[in-house]
Design goal:
By secondary structure, the chain is α/β, with parallel strands linked by helices. It contains seven helices and nine strands. The longest helix has 17 residues.
Length: 270
């Protein structure tokens, strides 16, 4: 199998190795790309420009047989599909609103982010860096995004370093239900230390902002001395995934809504 990995790939494998195989080896759709979001230019024609690239990245290539229902959204200069709006599409939409607010492209905080209004205002005042992709080779040395030696990519929604304290805040926006995401927190901390170095970053505070629920963010702080343990932990997790040649199914409650399940007409036996 390919050695390249990301948190989303590992998470799919951890949920069910068979799901991982169907999605990444057999290239079967998991239902997340069954809706197309199309950007329209000022004259109403479908003109792909730089501002619309996020649509392509999220939903793949345009397909004429996918359902398309659009409403204009001036905050994104795009048309956003609303009928049969899938969770993945909604999450991408809200993440883009947050990104544009941090960049100053949106002056007023969108209503979808109001439950974290104070946090977003402070984050923008702190000149936090918005969405970023940290890419590493097999030795976890930083490299270019599409370098041949690229081994793992870690995407962050926002991060900011307090130079005086050496504390790096890594923020991840979450939509949907509240979950611990402990493994993802560990990966964010590991990646921050590896990307910026422990001379500069003395601690990493990972924050999960559950935008649909409000309340204080879920926070966990990791110290620089934990870097070695974090690396060993993730090496062990990834090695198990990369060594698997059987991809046996792992039945669970997840099967009830898995696209590949037998009940939904998928190839899985469960």
């Amino acid at each position: 199998m390919t050695k390249q990995w990301s948190y989303s790939k590992w998470n799919d494998y951890d949920i069910c190795p068979s799901r991982f195989k169907y999605k990444y080896f057999d290239k079967l759709s998991d239902g997340g790309d069954d809706l197309t979001v199309v950007h329209f230019g000022a004259d109403g024609t479908n003109e792909g420009d730089d501002e619309a690239k996020w649509c392509l990245e999220a939903f793949g290539e345009f397909a004429s047989d996918r359902p398309k229902v659009f409403i204009p959204d001036e905050r994104l200069s795009a048309f956003v599909a609303v009928e049969g709006f899938p969770v993945m599409a909604r999450g991408t939409y809200i993440h883009k609103l947050a990104e544009n607010y941090l960049k100053g492209m949106i002056r007023e905080l969108p209503k979808e982010l109001h439950k974290f209004s104070v946090q977003f205002l402070l984050l923008r005042d702190a000149a936090a860096r918005g969405e970023a992709t940290w890419t590493f080779d097999e030795n976890y040395e930083p490299c270019e995004l599409f370098a041949r030696e690229a081994y793992v990519r870690v995407k962050t929604d926002a991060h900011v370093l307090n130079v005086e304290s050496g504390v790096m805040r890594v923020i991840d926006y979450k939509t949907g239900r509240i979950k611990p995401y402990n493994e993802q927190k560990e990966l964010y901390a590991f990646a921050a230390f590896a990307r910026f170095g422990t001379d500069q970053v003395k601690a990493v505070q990972v924050e999960l902002w559950f935008l649909d629920h409000g309340g204080p963010p879920s926070k966990e702080t990791f110290a620089a001395w934990q870097l070695g343990d974090l690396r060993k932990t993730w090496n062990k997790r990834v090695a198990k995934m990369q060594a698997d040649e059987r991809f046996d199914p792992r039945p669970s409650n997840f099967c009830n809504w898995c696209t590949y399940s037998k009940s939904k007409g998928g190839p899985c036996a469960y």
